[in-house]
Design a protein that fits this description.
9 strands, elongated
């Protein structure tokens, strides 16, 4: 199997003249653009061992990913640092392992797909006490999978600010489209590519504790 991975990262940190002039004792309460990250990557593989075709076939897979990450920062009346991060990403991929679900077609609906997944994160840090509250929401959609996620947490720095303890709770509510081989499908005499597939819900919950 041959694999090629190419990643490109562009980081743009933007600081306004007003922000530079603001002293440390008087942080800005206005919302400021802190940084923008643009990330692109390309993944490619090929080979001649495919489980779909009984062990002989193509392992060809391509994935093109692009995302933009924007972070805004301001301070509230109690001089707590608020950070807002918006991330929007799009992946386009092709996969031999999910192709040929319909034997009558040269290429099925799952042979290539586009995944769109935005997320929004917020955090509030008390720089005097070293306590940070944070939370976020996310969404992901593609041909046969939709996911809604949320997370909340708290972190506390040690007195010397050299260590940090973090507790985080995450939840994901997903909906999976059950695409069966055409020989096992029922309830559609036409047997078209866009029939009403069955669905299944999958919920995931995770609690994590970490120290750095």
């Amino acid at each position: 199997m041959k694999k090629i991975i190419i990643s490109i990262l562009s980081l743009f940190a933007i600081f306004s003249a007003q922000a530079q002039e603001t002293s440390a004792s008087e942080p800005s309460k206005k919302l400021k653009l802190d940084e923008i990250n643009l990330v692109s990557s390309y993944y490619k593989q090929d080979g001649n061992n495919s489980a779909v075709t009984g062990g002989i076939g193509s392992e060809k897979l391509d994935d093109i990913s692009n995302s933009i990450n924007v972070t805004l920062v301001n301070y509230d009346k109690k001089l707590r640092k608020n950070k807002y991060t918006l991330d929007v990403a799009v992946d386009h991929y092709s996969s031999a392992s999910s192709d040929q679900i319909d034997l009558k077609a040269n290429s099925s609906a799952s042979s290539a797909d586009t995944r769109f997944y935005p997320s929004l994160e917020w955090s509030r840090e008390n720089e005097k006490t070293g306590t940070t509250l944070f939370g976020g929401v996310s969404f992901s959609t593609e041909f046969d999978y939709q996911s809604i996620g949320a997370n909340v947490g708290i972190s506390q720095k040690t007195k010397n600010k050299m260590g940090e303890l973090t507790a985080k709770f995450q939840a994901y509510v997903d909906q999976v489209t059950l695409i069966k081989p055409i020989e096992l499908r029922t309830g559609n005499s036409g047997g078209g590519d866009h029939e009403n597939y069955g669905t299944s819900g999958r919920n995931t919950y995770a609690v994590s504790l970490s120290y750095s």
